[in-house]
Amino acid sequence: MIIARSAQELRNALDSKTGSVGFVPTMGALHIGHRTLIDAARRENDTVVVSIFVNPTQFLPGEDLSKYPRREEADFKICELSGVDVLFYPDVSTMYGRDEVRITAPDVRGYILEGASRPGHFDGVLTVVMKLFNLVRPTRAYFGKKDAQQLSLITQMVGNFFMDLTIVPMDTVRENDGLALSSRNVYLNPSERTEALKLSASLKRATKLVMQGTLESDAIKAQMLEILEPLEVEYVAIVNRAFESIGRVEIGNTIVLVAARVGSTRLIDNVWM
Ligand code: PAF
């Protein structure tokens, strides 16, 4: 595995490769969810590139940038064992200069739900992902459905800017008890971890209701909120794949989302139906 720390090192590593390039952008603290993305990239491409970069522009002031988990040695090992060909591991000065051109998220879809809770977050995500795509020039890029709004906005950016790559969405990976894997789960103490199960439990309830024929969004959201008690819920939302709020579930075109704080940790989860 080649570790490239600069744009030039990355280009040198990739210029000798032929065929398709599968790309998994990450912020490190890799877990099984990332492994699933890397494994898919490995199966479907000639070359696999993973980036690890804790992107400062997607953190709001007061968010967990400085304490975001960093596990360089373990992450490098995971990449190596997963058959990654090139690990891109830039520092902030490689990725950003001063007074730069930036991508801004769309006015509506970029500023609802996660974008309302974290205004400007998606500007940072889209800017760094654009830079990473231009550096890696992937054939396919792999993203988890857990960050559903991020996935949707990145897919939209690729379309809006006529970029020549395919975005591959991958299912959320869960612990046996339902907790969606997230790098932020390490912040949870044992009792918070138990409380965090309310997120996936509320989504399970939503799925059950839909299977039983309850399609009205308000009825589903009310039952989800009951399960989420007493967590500090930021939102429970039912949207279509274009992230428009819908009054009734449309099977095959619906995402049910939840964001809540467990202690001081902000968690998100969703189910696609
Ligand atoms: O999902 C993430 O880990 C990040 O938002 C991403 C896509 C790597 C951009 O920094």
Q: Explain this structure to me?
A:
β8 and β9 (265-272) form a beta hairpin. The chain starts with a strand and ends with a strand. The protein is built from 9 helices and 9 strands. It is globular. The protein has 2 domains: 2-170, 3-Layer(aba) Sandwich (Rossmann fold), CATH 3.40.50.620; 183-272, Pantoate--beta-alanine Ligase, Chain: A,domain 2. The protein is 38% helix and 20% strand. α6 crosses α7 (148-160) and α8 runs antiparallel to α9 (217-228). The model has no long low-confidence stretch (mean pLDDT 97). The strands form 2 sheets. It has a 6-stranded parallel β-sheet, sandwiched between helices. A 3-stranded antiparallel β-sheet has the order 7-8-9, with helices on one face. With 273 residues, it is of the alpha/beta class. The chain has helices spanning 7-15, 32-44, 72-81, 92-95, 114-117, 121-136, 148-160, 190-211, 217-228; strands at residues 2-4, 21-26, 47-52, 86-88, 140-144, 166-170, 232-240, 254-262, 265-272. Bound molecules: pantoate.
